[in-house]
């Protein structure tokens, strides 16, 4: 008997492969020629897809560089939502962001971030994404049933956490920078909890 879910599974795998292929092609071309020098039509031609197909997967040229952004956002939310019962939300975020910083400061990712920081267009896009991640993270903190924080407190902690990611990623000593930043975040979180109890 045919499994009715198989075609959908194949379609999703094909879509994911097409998306990955476009992103890989774009990054290769950006590295070879520079981000500003490569156009959308050139990427589509090189990836052997129509321009409309490219835009169906990526809403903008900048988005091609941040292909794994959805995974980043998902991991931040999971760090809050999937904590062990009674585990500190700040500790969970510290460990997840530590892993993300390590990823961004090793291997091929370092070259990508260098390209991002050298491009005003990409740097602006990265800042927009950071704000989006902070909003998503704040919503996750607010929604956690064991956390009783105000909207302002949740938003503040989330923004601090995202700022810590950026500062650590740009630091000569990412680990030390992240630990220092999260020391301050931990103190701020303790203050919000104390005020909630009053």
What report would you give on this structure?
It is a single chain. α6 runs parallel beside α9. The protein folds into two domains: 5-63, Arc Repressor Mutant, subunit A (Orthogonal Bundle); 69-197, Tetracycline Repressor, domain 2. The protein is an all-alpha fold and 198 residues long. It has helices at residues 5-33, 40-47, 51-57, 61-65, 69-81, 89-104, 108-118, 120-143, 151-170, 174-197.
Second-tier CATH architecture of the largest domain? Orthogonal Bundle
Helix and strand element order: HHHHHHHHHH
β-strand amount: under 5%
| CATH class designation of the largest domain | Mainly Alpha
* Overall tally of domains: 2
Structural class computed from helices and strand pairing: mainly alpha
Helix content: over 70%
The first-to-last residue Cα distance is 63 Å
**What shape does the CA trace take?**
globular
Mean pLDDT: 90
Radius of gyration: 20 Å
* Contiguous helical run count: 10
The largest pleated sheet is described as:
none
What fold name goes in the CATH topology slot of the largest domain?
Tetracycline Repressor, domain 2
Q: Could you give the count of β-strands?
A: 0
Poorly predicted regions: 1-7
């Amino acid at each position: 008997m045919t499994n009715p879910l198989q075609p959908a599974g194949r379609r999703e795998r094909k879509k994911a492969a097409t998306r990955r292929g476009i992103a890989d092609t774009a990054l290769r071309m950006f590295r070879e020629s520079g981000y500003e020098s490569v156009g959308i039509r050139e990427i589509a031609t090189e990836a052997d897809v129509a321009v409309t197909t490219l835009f169906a997967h990526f809403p903008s040229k900048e988005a091609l560089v941040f292909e794994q952004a959805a995974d980043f956002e998902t991991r931040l939310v999971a760090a809050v939502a999937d904590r062990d019962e009674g585990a500190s939300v700040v500790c969970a975020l510290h460990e997840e962001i530590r892993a993300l910083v390590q990823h961004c400061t090793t291997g091929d990712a370092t070259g990508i971030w260098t390209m991002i920081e050298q491009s005003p267009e990409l740097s602006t896009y990265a800042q927009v994404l950071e704000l989006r991640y902070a909003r998503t993270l704040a919503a996750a903190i607010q929604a956690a049933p064991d956390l009783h924080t105000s909207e302002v407190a949740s938003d503040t902690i989330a923004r601090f956490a995202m700022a810590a990611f950026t500062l650590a990623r740009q630091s000569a000593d990412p680990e030390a920078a992240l630990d220092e930043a999260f020391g301050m975040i931990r103190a701020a979180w303790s203050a919000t909890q104390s005020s909630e109890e009053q």
